[in-house]
Design a protein that fits this description.
about 325 residues; mainly alpha; MetI-like fold; disordered N terminus
Length: about 325
């Protein structure tokens, strides 16, 4: 029996399609079903936060309106059962004021994500720029920046933010920021960023130490490229992986910190709301209507856990050996 092997068509060339690190990481993350479910949840929560005013307008609820008809004249408790849940108020009403819980939840999600996302973006920008400059420059520049990072990390973050809240919010108001919650929100964003950037700067600095000796950087220097081009065109694209991991793990930390500060009365205060403010107001009525505490608590935990799971998936995709360990 003879074996016939078909010849390849004349001119046919085998091609191998390479994939970038970004494509490889995305392919690995897509295989993680838990991470994909969490990613869909996060996208949905962000969309809900963005469209919160429109959603409330369609349903006919308002986080600031007092509905005296929905609460009792004796004690201020909800008239309807289960915390005042009805067609007009899908998740019930707030004890004593009659404000809609569903509307407060949407606007609380909006404010919490605004603070955490803004602080994360500022932290990433400052930490990345300073880390690149420090790692590439070396010498005295690196030494000075290193001491600044050490000094910043030495401050007790929570103690500072509690002690300086009143003074700095008044200072922001004197600079033109509206008094009340706008100045408090800006204060938290700035303080989170000021105390958060050194952690990322150290990570980026260490990566740049190894990258600055690579062939593509030496080639750019030999071709006469400017320092800014070397830093932000040649080196920066190779740093997106650790930056992304840091951002996905830092953002939920800021969400939890903002909730804790609002719970303590340092963050967002009524009539605006956030998860921490809702939890603080629900403590007094927990024994009567537990849903006041459970509803914002469950959403807060869901938000933090989904961010952490997505961050873990991205980290494992970048370093599969870490996931196996």
């Amino acid at each position: 029996m003879s074996l016939t092997i078909a010849a390849a068509p004349t001119g046919a060339v085998d091609t191998v399609v390479g994939r970038s690190l970004r494509q490889i990481v995305w392919a690995r993350v897509r295989r993680d079903r838990v991470a994909m479910v969490c990613l869909v949840i996060l996208i949905g929560l962000y969309l809900i936060a963005i469209m919160a005013p429109a959603i409330c307008a369609v349903i006919g609820v308002d986080p600031y309106s007092f509905d005296s008809a929905s609460i009792s004249d004796l004690g201020g408790g909800p008239v309807d059962a289960w915390g005042g849940i009805s067609l007009d108020h899908p998740l019930g009403v707030e004890w004593g004021t009659g404000r809609d819980i569903f509307a407060q939840l949407l606007f609380g999600l909006r404010i919490s994500l605004l603070i955490a996302t803004s602080a994360t973006i500022i932290t990433v920008v400052i930490g990345t720029v300073i880390g690149i400059v420090s790692g590439y420059s070396g010498g005295k520049t690196d030494a000075v920046i290193g001491r600044i990072m050490d000094l910043t990390l030495a401050f007790p973050f929570l103690l500072i933010i509690l002690a300086l809240s009143g003074v700095l919010t008044q200072r922001l108001t004197s600079l033109g920021v509206p008094e009340g919650n706008p100045s408090r929100i800006l204060y938290m964003i700035l303080v989170f960023s000021v105390f958060g950037w050194p952690y990322l700067a150290r990570i980026v600095r260490g990566q740049v130490f190894s990258l600055r000796e690579r062939e593509f950087v030496e080639a750019a220097v030999a071709m006469g490229a400017s320092k800014s081009r070397i830093l932000f065109v040649e080196i920066l694209p190779n740093l997106w992986a650790p930056i992304l991991v840091y951002a996905t793990l830092t953002l939920p930390t800021y969400i939890g910190t903002e909730a804790a500060l609002s719970f303590l009365g340092i963050g967002v205060l009524p009539p605006d709301t956030s998860f921490g403010a809702m939890l603080a107001s629900s403590v007094s009525y927990f024994s009567v209507v537990p849903s006041y505490l459970f509803i914002p608590g469950v959403l807060l935990v869901t938000l933090v856990v989904t961010f952490n799971l997505v961050g873990d998936a991205v980290r494992d995709a970048l370093d599969p050996r870490a996931g196996r360990r």
